[in-house]
Amino acid sequence: MIFENPKARRQLLEKGLVYTFRKHPHKEGRDWASAYRGGPKIADIYVKVVGRMRPIDLAPYVKDSGFDSLQEWIEAIRQFGIAPQEYGYLHEVILKK
Questions:
Q1: pTM of the full structure
Q2: How confident is the model over 4-18, as pLDDT tens digits?
């Protein structure tokens, strides 16, 4: 799983848990994280799909997203071509130590 956004990546690596929003569901279970496509592994992770929702509905997960506010997280999601009203998938990612 790729973590291009430095705030989300830092949240995962420093706190051991991050909620990340993606356009499509990622496979659940064991995986590994990188900072960019084709990049080296930075961590082993465990991925769980929380559910299908819209970015505007992510408020309960902001504190574990790495972002300071829902609006900041929505702006980061928008950079990946997902509108605030568009559905996607929230994932819980846990760092495997």
A1: 0.95
A2: 999 999 999 999 999
